[in-house]
Amino acid sequence: DPNQAIYGFRGSDPAWFYRFIEALHPEQHSLVRNYRSGPVLVKAAGQLIGADPGPDSLAGPMAGGEGQGDIFIHRSSSAVAEAVFIAGQVERLLGGTSHREIDKLADRSDDAGLALGDIAVLYRTGRQAEVLAGVFAERGLPVQVVDIVPFYLSGPALVLYLWVLIAAERGDSANLLVLLGREKGIGRRSLGGLEPLLPVGCRDPLAALSGVKEKLPARLGAAVADFQALRTRLRKTAAETGIEPALRSIVLPRYQLDPAEGEVVRFLRLAVTFGSSLTSLADHLQHYKDSVVYDKRAEAVALMTLHASKGLEFPVVFLAGLEEGLLPFAPRQPLTAAEEQRHLEEERRLFYVGLTRAERMVFLSHAAGRRINGKTCSRQPSRFLREIPAALLRRAETGQANRRHARNKIQQLSLF
């Protein structure tokens, strides 16, 4: 679907579709019917993408699904107020309320009951997740934060990831060198001397270094021996009690990782699902290291960038931060007129992708003010909001949700 070409920074461009057609003259069949989203949602998405003035734009989709669909719009005073609003609406959806607009959802589906995993909050930049995740945590609403770059490739979870690879004999020389570089007294010069000793494509670099330990400087040799002993302990403990207890009791203390830190908690929860199989976990992590990591089994609201949401679908979607400067995103450097047009076309397609992730309901949210680089700045609604007919939009009401009911519902969901 050329209208979903949103990875321009990776070379994605809808023009490739048309160049292919011009070059090879293939037989064409257009699949335009959307069976996921309700007619109102499909019509809004069609109006949005139809406003694209670019030469490569296509006609919008046709509705093929059941149910009408609803689009609510809301303006908050700040990013925090926006997060509070979204969390409140999630509580309403999960816990039941007398709110007449949301209650109509039950009349439009044979099985309208919603679980945490049925709801997604989408935004343009990863930085927007921090405020949202903080407010959700305060309200006891579990979330899984999803981004294009897997969380375990940076931050505190990186050490856990690397040790899983080394323990499972799935790590390469670069993985081992990163871990050795964290050892006291081992710097770049020492690591540079190791590279000639590691065969290209070596499947077990730790074993390879252990075999030439006598050729290594004393400090490096001691570190390699220590790593071998640690790997043996890690494997033994994982086999006896599981990967999660092994990482918690061996790796966390060694690197002084906080077991309550968000990314560490997230990694350990993932490890639990693989029991004692280090190879299965390592293969899973490597398989997804160049793509989006999203666990559809998680009993949690999904917080993710619009880029990461492509290919997914949810009964309810919140689109947050629909403001000038965020969507469309403000370029970091000046653009020519042609570059500016291409940029806006891709930003519009991002909005289109977000809208079409929803099956039943979309909440469009923007804030009047937002802190940027430590300063509170006034914000204007996204120009793309004006491209959706007002007749399709409904003002979202606010108020207190039945918090006790919502929390009880969440606890029940987490048991299954």
What do you see in this structure?
This protein has 416 residues and is an alpha/beta fold. It folds into two domains: 19-148 and 294-413, 3-Layer(aba) Sandwich (Rossmann fold); 152-287. Helices cover 43% and strands 12% of the residues. It is built from 16 helices and eleven strands. The protein has a seven-stranded parallel sheet with strand order 5-6-4-7-8-3-11. A two-stranded parallel ribbon has the order 1-2. Strands 9-10 form a two-stranded antiparallel sheet. The two termini are 36 Å apart.
- Largest sheet at a glance? 7 strands, parallel
**What low-confidence regions span 5 or more consecutive residues with pLDDT below 50?**
96-111, 400-416
Mean pLDDT: 82
The count of strands amounts to: 11
User: What is the chain-wise order of helices and strands?
Assistant: HEHEEHHEHEHHHHHHHHEHEHEEEEH
CATH topology call of the largest domain: Rossmann fold
**Total number of domains:** 2
Distance between the termini: 36 Å
**Gyration radius over CA:** 25 Å
Strand content: 5-15%
CATH architecture of the largest domain: 3-Layer(aba) Sandwich
Coarse structural class:
alpha/beta
Strand order of the largest sheet: 5-6-4-7-8-3-11
CATH class of the largest domain: Alpha Beta
Share in helix = 40-55%
The shape, in one word, is elongated
